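A reminder from the course coordinator: this example appears on the midterm review sheet, so study it carefully.

Given structure:
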């Protein structure tokens, strides 16, 4: 009998928590109210089943409890009961699944006038690309991915030259305007998810997935990765800012084009080749998603002032941070864990030259780094802000070392949205989307065949292992 009473208490507590819980969905910020409707249908059906099944079990325990002189009647089959159970279960499952299928069909069928934005996921950061004045995204392919071309855009495709590159985890959208998101991943499975938009979509390496939405109110909303993509999964954060027309146009006007970024990278290499290569590697390998360069706290030790300091480890020992220390730590990051940090850094697949470049960049971030063994660097150009995934929101993107020409910094971030208390034609042909074969913005394409010259270089291949 104690079990029967316990089941009744569990049902009552579950219903009370549901109706009087202070936590509920975040306020809706897109056109997808149908997502909330399908969730409500699922909660109602599963809630009714939960209550009925548990109360039936409690009644059965009480009604058929053991009593002296009574013997249970054995009935192995009851076709009428089995028919009712099969029918009710079928109707309930169909009622839960059918609405979701209709909503999903609409989710991947964007309006003809929707703006196009490409979202690229990588451990553990977000990047974005917008078309230029012609409204077309140029082709891309993983074989074009290099440290200075992390999106793998085809440099020979004319449609790419005016594409706007958002090399930071902050995307702006225009309120009231539908937008089609083309989603791709560079390494492992990711999932682009903004809770107030209610929409999410898997990002599969080698594929282009898509969804669309219409932002309905201005504000700042967190971007989350809804797939376990590695040890830095929880830090794969970003923000979507929904603007009105003047603010959105001002933001777009500040974005650099692909052609401008390529020219800036070439200029940085001319001024300080090794450090410039290290900065691009830190960005391409995802180092900036865990290590800040402005001294602010992060998942890993900040690189600002790291070189030349004395690092203390969890076992109480300490070591002077020099070239040998950085090389050993990057090669085997869990051998000695700095105090106050978790041993979650994965081993990076770096060549000796890449390792030297990364160390050279870290040295430029330290005011105490010795310069006696190196020639005096030329006068640095103005600071250029590069990508940095926000590890602790809110926190403005970090400023990188002055190696490239200036670009307008992003505005300071604001606190992310919080859960509310419950109130009651042309260009290079590429890979078409399966559900949108007529798209003119293909993010993937087969690159042109390389010439037979032995001097032709092959873009570096980046590998990531998700554990």
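Designed residues:
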């Amino acid at each position: 009998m104690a079990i029967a009473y316990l089941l009744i208490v569990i049902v009552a507590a579950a219903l009370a928590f549901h109706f009087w819980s202070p936590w509920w969905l975040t306020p809706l910020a897109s056109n997808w109210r149908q997502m909330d409707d399908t969730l409500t249908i699922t909660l109602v059906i599963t809630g009714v089943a939960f209550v009925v099944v548990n109360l039936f079990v409690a009644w059965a325990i009480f009604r058929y409890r053991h009593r002296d002189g009574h013997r249970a009647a054995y009935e192995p089959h009851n076709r009428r009961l089995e028919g009712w159970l099969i029918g009710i279960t079928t109707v309930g499952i169909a009622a839960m699944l059918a609405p979701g299928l209709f909503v999903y069909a609409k989710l991947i069928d964007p309006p003809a006038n929707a703006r196009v934005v490409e979202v690229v996921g990588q451990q553990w950061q977000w990047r974005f690309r917008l078309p230029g004045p012609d409204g077309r995204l140029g082709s891309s392919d993983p074989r074009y991915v290099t440290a200075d071309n992390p999106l793998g855009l085809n440099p020979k495709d004319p449609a790419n030259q005016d594409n706007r590159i958002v090399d930071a985890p902050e995307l702006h959208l225009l309120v009231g305007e539908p937008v089609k998101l083309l989603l791709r991943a560079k390494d492992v499975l990711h999932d682009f998810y903004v809770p107030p938009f209610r929409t999410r979509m898997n990002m599969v390496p080698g594929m282009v997935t898509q969804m669309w939405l219409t932002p309905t109110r201005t504000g700042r909303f967190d971007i989350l990765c809804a797939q376990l993509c590695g040890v830095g999964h929880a830090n794969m954060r970003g923000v979507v800012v929904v603007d009105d027309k003047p603010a959105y146009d001002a933001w777009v006007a500040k974005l650099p084009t692909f052609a401008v970024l390529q020219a800036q990278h070439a200029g940085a290499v001319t001024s300080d080749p090794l450090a410039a290569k290290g900065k691009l590697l830190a960005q391409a390998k995802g180092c900036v998603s865990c290590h800040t360069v402005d001294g602010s706290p992060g998942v890993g030790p900040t690189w600002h002032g790291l070189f030349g300091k004395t690092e203390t480890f969890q076992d109480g020992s300490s070591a002077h941070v020099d070239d040998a220390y950085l090389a050993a730590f990057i090669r085997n990051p869990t051998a000695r864990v700095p105090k106050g940090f978790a041993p979650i850094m994965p081993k990076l697949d770096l060549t000796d030259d890449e390792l030297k470049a990364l160390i050279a960049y870290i040295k430029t971030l330290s005011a105490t780094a010795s310069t006696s063994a190196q020639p005096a660097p030329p006068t640095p150009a103005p600071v250029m802000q590069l990508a940095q995934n926000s590890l602790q929101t809110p926190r403005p993107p970090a400023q990188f070392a002055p190696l490239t020409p200036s670009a307008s910094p992003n505005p300071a971030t604001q606190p992310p949205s919080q859960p509310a208390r419950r109130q009651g034609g042309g260009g290079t042909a590429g890979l078409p989307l399966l559900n949108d074969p007529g798209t003119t913005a293909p993010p993937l394409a087969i690159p042109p065949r390389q010439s037979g010259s032995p001097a032709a270089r092959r873009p570096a291949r980046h590998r990531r292992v998700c554990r």
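Confidence is low (pLDDT under 50) at residues 368-467. DSSP finds eight helices and twelve strands in the chain.
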